[in-house]
Amino acid sequence: MHSPSTSSSDGSSDLLVEIIETLEACGLEDDSYQLHDYVDPGALEQLLASADETITVQFTVEGIPLDVSPGGVEVIVEDESDADTE
To answer: Which residue in 78, 58, 77 sits closest to 69, CA to CA?
Structure first.
């Protein structure tokens, strides 16, 4: 593993750490995937940093759907009431 470049801001590396920690909390081991296969971390950081309005980016890593915004990283949970109404 390599260290983040010194030109990246602390916020951007914090975002990546938060994504990884969220995936680990869901039981996904850090050596079972390559994050860059699912999302371009640099582009994601730039997008969130440059957005004028509240923005969220959704993507799935190894079956775990994530919602990433300037406010943080959340796992997308399907509303159980939607599943029960058929």
So the answer is: 58
* pTM for the model: 0.74
Torsion sign over Cα 9, 38, 59, 30: negative
Q: Which residues contact 50 (CB under 8 A, 6 or more apart)?
A: none
Which structure tokens are listed for 34? 């390559």
Q: Name, in order, each residue with C-beta under 8 angstroms of 69's C-beta and a sequence gap of 6 or more.
A: 48, 54, 55, 56, 57
Average pLDDT for the chain: 82
pLDDT in tens, 29-39: 988 999 999 99
pLDDT: which is higher, 78 or 63: 63
Closest CA to 71 of 38, 40, 46, 49: 49
In 19-63, the DSSP E strands lie at 57-61
Q: Is 69 helix (H, G, I), strand (E, B) or coil?
A: strand
